[in-house]
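Workshop exercise sheet. Pairs work together: one partner reads the sequence aloud, the other fills in the structure field after running the prediction. Swap roles for the next sheet.
Pair: D.N. / O.F.
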Amino acid sequence: MKSATVLGILQGEQVVSSRAKKVTTHILQEMKRSNEKIAMLTAYDYSLARLVDEAGVDVILVGDSASNVMAGNDTTVPITLEQMIYHAQCVVNAVDRALVVVDMPFGSYQGDSKLALKSAIRIMKESGGHAVKIEGGKEIVDSVKRILTAGIPVMGHLGLTPQSIYKFGTYSVRAKEEAEANRLMEDAMALQEAGCFSVVFEKIPADLAKKVSETLDIPTIGIGAGPHCDGQVLVLHDMLGITKDFSPRFLRRYSDVGSAVDKAVRDYIDDVRGGSFPAQEESY
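Structure field:
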């Protein structure tokens, strides 16, 4: 396994980190029970997915955020099932260790559990992904149950659900009012009872995320939901500083890859125009 890391040698035997294990839904459940935080990031292509996997991330989400960061759309709504399958294929080809979860895009499951099952089967069969993710609460329970009949693990997604942006009309924090907070708790319990192995909470109050996380038996993954979830997720291009025009409160930029790429390209242009590239040692 390419991503295996050896911590040391004890009594003549190699001690291999738990990070070397192939991550499964069962391991995520064990991590919650042992209070070990889950690290999740998005990826959409082979090259970056390989780097993310080798670094030791637990879960890679092939997010419908590819609609934004890869295709330049304003929302996640336009991306198609075929496009999601393509991105997932690229990621799966790169991954040895991480659990690969694939977003089911808008229009591939809403209101029709038979369509949801058909879409999920296509994702798993054609991409080789390990699980799917669906946005929504009680209204998608039938779809969750039907997908599970095919042995396909399902991750839920509550709070701000970007596929419903035209319904909400805003990307502001959800479930701030008591009625919506209670509904989110009910939806989370319904998803757990339906068989979801995990649920993402996006842009909800930290206190609410803590309460629900402590109530649920399944792992919770936060994005803009405070520190008390069982794990966290960010969009890779955002945390690397590749995207420049998106700076929500919850985003921490761990690098400035965008500026590094800009400098590299400008240096290349200068060298080509100045005649210093390619040099003699770079020529045949």
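Discussion prompt: The chain is about 40% helix and 15% strand. What would you look at next?
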